[in-house]
Design goal:
Length: 164
């Protein structure tokens, strides 16, 4: 018996309507099912392949600012998509924690409207020991972003730049 992947994850939320809007309009997920009486919404990035990868349900009991989940990471298809999210988050006023290279990925750590940390990331086909995390400038064209990621990986400086 072996685990073959993560099926789905979810958050308990206070404001289901605000969170539903964020994950559909800003993140681009598709609502695959919902029950307004139970206060639950199911989402998928690939509704033809996977009924749901993410669930929101009304009923959060933790006070605002509580750390409940480390992060939810959303894989994307291209560096152009990462750069598009960079611009979308800026336009939407989304709280971005850090834009990074991990050597084996380029991503953006950000917070949804209720403070849950998320990441959008592009997997880079290389093996880099983790944790490796350096801030990267996504206000560049894709070729310049990749060149900066290579430079940061080759740099002999500190490999991990934690943020609070």
């Amino acid at each position: 018996m072996a685990i073959t992947g993560l099926g789905h994850t979810g958050f308990w939320v206070d404001d289901l309507e605000t969170m539903r809007d964020f994950y559909t309009r800003v993140m681009g997920l598709t609502v695959t099912d919902e029950d307004t009486e139970l206060g639950i919404v199911f989402f998928s990035s690939r509704p033809d392949e996977e009924h749901h990868e993410f669930v929101l349900q009304r009923g959060r009991t933790a006070p605002p600012g509580s750390k409940l989940t480390h992060q939810v990471s959303w894989r994307v298809d291209s560096l152009e998509t990462i750069i598009d999210f960079h611009h979308r988050f800026r336009a939407e006023g989304i709280d971005v924690q850090q834009e990074v290279t991990h050597g084996n990925a380029i991503g953006i750590y950000f917070f949804d409207p209720e403070g849950n940390r998320n990441e959008v990331y592009l997997r880079i086909d290389r093996d880099v020991r983790q944790p490796f995390r350096k801030t990267i400038d996504l206000d560049q064209d894709p070729a310049a972003v990749l060149a900066e990621a290579e430079r940061l990986l080759a740099d002999g400086g500190a490999a991990y730049q934690p943020v609070q």
